[in-house]
Amino acid sequence: MGVSSPNSPSIDGIECHDAGFQPVRGAAQEVAHTASRRSGPRRWLRAVAWLIAAGLHPKANATTLRVAEDLAGRMDYDTGHARYLLDEMVARLGIDRSTIKRHIAMLRELGALAWVQHGTRANIRRALGLGGYAGTATVYAAVIPAVYDHAMGHRIVGSGYTARIVVDQRGQAQTPVDNPPVDNQGPKRCAPPSRTWVKEDGQVQMVGGSNYTPRAGRRTTSIPQQKTHSSSNSRGSAGRRSPMQVAQDIRIARQVRPLVNWTQAEGLRRLAYALRPLIDRGLDAMQIADELAGMCLGWRPRQPANYLRTVLAKDAAQLEAQAAADALLAAQTWTTADEDDVDALARLFGVATGEPAPEPRTDHDRYLARRDWSVWPEVAAHYADDPDDALDLYGEDLVTYAVRMDAHTQDREARLA
Question: Could you please report the per-residue DSSP string of 286-351?
Answer without folding.
Answer: HHHHHHHHTT-SS---SSHHHHHHHHHHHHHHHHHHHHHHHHHHHH--TTT--HHHHHHHHHHHT-
